[in-house]
Structures are given as C-alpha cells and as structure tokens.
Amino acid sequence: MRPPYPPSPERSAELRRRFAEEARSERPDLSTLCLLVGAEADRELDEAGLDAAQVELDRLAGLLPFRPGGSRAWAVALRELLGERMGFHGTPGDYQRLESSLLHEVLVRRRGLPILLSVVWMEVARRAGAPVYGVALPGHFVVGFGPDEGQVLADPFDGGRVLSGADAELLVVGATGTGVDPSMLRPADPLDVVLRILNNVRAWAAARPERSDVALWAVELSLLLPSHPARLRYERAQLLVRRGEFLGGALELEAYAEVVEAVDEVAAERVRGEAFAARAMLN
C-alpha cells in the first residue's frame, strides 16, 4: 500500500480552517475531527471520501439491534457486529502503520490502533443511541458504556472483548506498574481523544526522520486545539529548523523563549541560543 502524503497547501489551509472551527464549536464532532486529520495526512481523501466515511458509520449503526438493553447488552451487540461480523480489530503490526491512526483507512482496512478502533465503536454506538464514551486507560484506549456504578468496558483492539475488572487492572498494571485509579475510568473529552491521536501520529513520525512532514502537520493541528501543551511550539520550531526553514524556526524559538522566561530563565536563554544558531544557518 502506498504511504499517505499531505495535500496541496491550498487544500491543507482549508482543512485546517475547518478543523479549528470544529474544535472550537460548542459540541465538537469526533468523527469530523478525525476525518479532517485523515484528509491532512492523505491527499487522496477528497470531499466525496469524507462523506463516504460518515455514510459508512451511519450504515454500521443501522445494523445494530434497536436498543438491545443495558450497558452490557450494548457492549455485546457492538462486539458481535463490529468485532465478529465486520472483523474490526488490531494487531501489534498496526502500530507500525500511519494508516492505523487515520479513521477513513481504519474503516476500509478494519484494522487500527486501540484509540481509532475505539472511535469507530463510539461513533457507531452513538449513532444508535448507546450510552458510550471513550476511556483513556494509560497505554491502551478502550470504550465504556453506562454510568459509573454500572460501567461496562470493552476493548475494540481485541475485537470488542468485554472487560472484567481484573482485565482492566491487568491493562493498567502492564502500562504503569500500578493499579487502576477511578480517575482513569472517566469519559474522555473528544478534544483530548483527538490530541492523543495526533500524539500517536507524532510518535510514528519521530521514528521516521524522513517523514518530518507528517510530524509537522501533526504538531500544527495539535496547536489548533483550544487546549494543548505549550511545549508543542518548541517542537514545531525544531521541526522547521530540521526541515531547513531556518528563519521560521528561529522566530518560533524566540517566541517560545518569551513564554518560558517567566518560569525558567535558564531554559529561555538556551532556547534563544538555539534561535541564534538557526539564524546563523541562513548565512
């Protein structure tokens, strides 16, 4: 399969405008934001492709039984449809593919990272009226159904397997070495889900220096979210310098130094030194 590459600058500018607008709306739509990420990654994903992905989510939701019952019944219905009948699941090899972080590709391949498969589960279940939400366990994203006292967890990466309390404990212990804290089981905010997806894209690109283009757009989309780590500005500056955009990188480094100076003068001075070195590369 060909690796995805970003669209033209004009198309990218329009996609980013829409991404920022959706992220700042009163109720950001998770599937729309994920598909705009996909369009920023893949120049082949046009407007018809964006619409087709939403139609596929609607189609899958229409295949669910009408109001199957309580939280566990919803989880089982999603497992039977998406995991067993449709074959959505993940494998260790999916962590090596950028497509595993792109919703439109996951809908076609029926494979992806835990968080993208969870997006499929959430968006299909939400359309069918299920009480569903994402649960950002450390190192492994899952979905939850129902209120806290009757919460049921399912693992889309494992085909939607319904998790017992011991199963969830093992997942968390494997990632952190400690047990489950109740705060880990809270519903994840859609914008936090999108930021975590973009973090995965950045991690994929970090292991592939030749794809600094991917790292750059992932950082720049993250910066469009209403809430994001300030250090992403520093990361963007470093990427610009690495890509030979020395003046832009220097300006970004200097702006970041201004932000950092209020809390860490030594770090600010170091960043200004990096900006000076970047400007020197122009000579």
UniProtKB/TrEMBL annotation:
<protein>
    <recommendedName>
        <fullName>Protein SirB1 N-terminal domain-containing protein</fullName>
    </recommendedName>
</protein>
<dbReference type="Pfam" id="PF13371">
    <property type="entry name" value="TPR_9"/>
</dbReference>
<dbReference type="Pfam" id="PF13369">
    <property type="entry name" value="Transglut_core2"/>
</dbReference>
<dbReference type="InterPro" id="IPR032698">
    <property type="entry name" value="SirB1_N"/>
</dbReference>
<feature type="region of interest" description="Disordered">
    <location>
        <begin position="1"/>
        <end position="27"/>
    </location>
</feature>
<feature type="domain" description="Protein SirB1 N-terminal">
    <location>
        <begin position="75"/>
        <end position="199"/>
    </location>
</feature>
<feature type="compositionally biased region" description="Basic and acidic residues">
    <location>
        <begin position="11"/>
        <end position="27"/>
    </location>
</feature>
<comment type="similarity">
    <text>Belongs to the UPF0162 family.</text>
</comment>
